[in-house]
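TASK: fixed-backbone design
INPUT:
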């Protein structure tokens, strides 16, 4: 019985792989109900299988069922403890969605123990580990972990940008340790999220040690300043510290003469502590004309801010239109974040605006993690979720490999033959992404072909997970 489980018959393996590929395809098309059925078929064919648990976790995450998602991720981790991407995913959900800092800390530390963890993943895991320690009140340990990032290669490249450009250095750092070729904006978004988190954590610990890093990032990417401004708003930095973090000075002007009126105007001169009545010193008071101008200016700024937030929220809701209920919309409209929607039409949710506004830094993409090594990564389509990510500028997409048909058995055999022939002609060890760039096909197809060729003893593999390389076996 164990032998049969270890080596299932060929028919079962084909059905399992078909459900696997179909489940991921349905997930990226937002057909969560059908994707869940495909994952259930996988589970029925091979109970307790890693790939079935991983897919179940991604589906639950896309449905915003974070408790269920974390449960499936932990099942997948139990089946394959060395898969570091799942530790990143589980730690992110445990820390930001489930609010369980102890579980997040556990997953961060177990993920850092995995072999061959890419440099950029180390940065993400250490930042989440420090955030978990802060949430648990272990501030000294958090400061010590953040200090270890001072020599991180990505941070050094930000503080002292190389001649060929910062973004190119990040992309090279990501690609040199993995056979996945991510989009440059995805790499930059992840890194800027880590940067603003580092600065935020240092400020929470009462230190400005993260200021040089945040200032360098703001200098390299000026549009990043708006995200830093939102994240650091509650710290109420004075003008000197704002400059240290690369933020523009606040608006300074004459203000109303009462503390109550002043508190409604963000960014103005604060009330002096030595004035018990809360009034401003004489030098800060103004005439009625100035007060009327300032009140009108603040009103216009608030309306503009509400309109911008409403536009961003419409874009987020548009991506999740197939999952929204009227109950969800009522909760949003009753919340402060829904103020910008009150003057908008319902039809705005079904129309596309051009040009699109950049995404908010506090909304992290919920695209599934990189696919397991025995299958393929589907096309990347970001979906908004609860976790936090920073905004990255868009770049020109690289040329895509030619499309091939591998739906039928004959088509898969033809595609497998093309992959095998390329490996034999090229010789040596190559990542699957390199082979796909020459042979064509989707990431799902190239991973499936590698699995089939390896099972047929025609291709051999070395390394594991992100460091996997393939070559044709000698004839």
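OUTPUT:
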């Amino acid at each position: 019985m164990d032998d049969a489980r270890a080596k299932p018959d060929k028919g079962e393996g084909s059905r399992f792989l078909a459900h696997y590929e179909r489940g991921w395809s349905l997930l990226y098309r937002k057909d969560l109900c059908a994707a869940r059925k495909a994952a259930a078929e996988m589970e029925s064919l091979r109970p307790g299988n890693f790939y079935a648990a991983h897919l179940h976790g991604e589906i639950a995450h896309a449905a915003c069922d974070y408790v269920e998602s974390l449960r499936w991720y932990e099942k997948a981790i139990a089946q394959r403890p060395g898969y570091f991407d799942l530790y990143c995913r589980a730690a992110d959900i445990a820390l930001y969605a489930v609010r369980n800092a102890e579980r997040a800390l556990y997953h961060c530390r177990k993920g850092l123990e995995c072999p061959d963890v890419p440099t950029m993943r180390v940065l993400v895991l250490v930042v989440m580990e420090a955030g978990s320690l802060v949430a648990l009140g272990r501030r000294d340990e958090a400061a010590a972990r953040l200090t270890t990032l001072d020599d991180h290669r990505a941070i050094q490249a930000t503080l002292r940008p190389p001649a060929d450009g910062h973004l190119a250095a990040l992309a090279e750092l990501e690609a040199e340790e993995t056979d996945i070729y991510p989009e440059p904006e995805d790499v930059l978004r992840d890194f800027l999220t880590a940067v603003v988190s580092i600065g935020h954590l240092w400020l929470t610990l009462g230190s400005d040690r993260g200021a040089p890093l945040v200032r360098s990032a703001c200098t390299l990417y000026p549009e990043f300043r708006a995200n830093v401004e939102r994240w650091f708003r509650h710290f109420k930095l004075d003008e000197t510290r704002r400059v240290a973090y690369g933020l523009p000075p606040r608006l300074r002007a004459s203000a109303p003469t009462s503390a109550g009126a002043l508190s409604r105007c963000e960014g103005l001169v604060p009330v002096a502590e030595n004035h018990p009545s809360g009034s401003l010193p004489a030098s800060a008071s103004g005439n009625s004309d100035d007060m009327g101008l300032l009140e009108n200016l603040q009103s216009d700024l608030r309306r503009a801010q509400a309109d911008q937030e409403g536009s961003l929220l419409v874009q987020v809701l548009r991506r999740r239109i197939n999952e929204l209920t009227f109950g969800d919309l009522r909760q949003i409209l009753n919340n402060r974040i829904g103020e910008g929607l009150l003057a908008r039409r319902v039809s705005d949710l079904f129309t596309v605006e051009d040009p699109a506004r950049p995404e908010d830094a506090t909304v992290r993409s919920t695209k599934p993690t990189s696919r397991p090594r025995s299958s393929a990564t589907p096309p990347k389509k970001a979906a908004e979720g609860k976790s936090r990510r920073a905004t990255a500028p868009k770049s020109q997409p690289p040329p895509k490999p030619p499309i091939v048909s591998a739906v039928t058995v004959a088509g898969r055999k033809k595609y497998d033959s093309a992959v095998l022939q390329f490996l034999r002609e090229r010789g040596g060890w190559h990542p699957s992404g390199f082979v796909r760039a020459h042979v064509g096909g989707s990431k799902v197809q190239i991973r499936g072909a590698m699995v089939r060729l390896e099972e047929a003893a025609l291709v051999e593999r070395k390394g594991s997970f992100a460091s996997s390389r393939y070559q044709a076996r000698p004839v």
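COMMENT: The chain has four domains: 1-80, 114-251+360-396, 298-357, 409-472.
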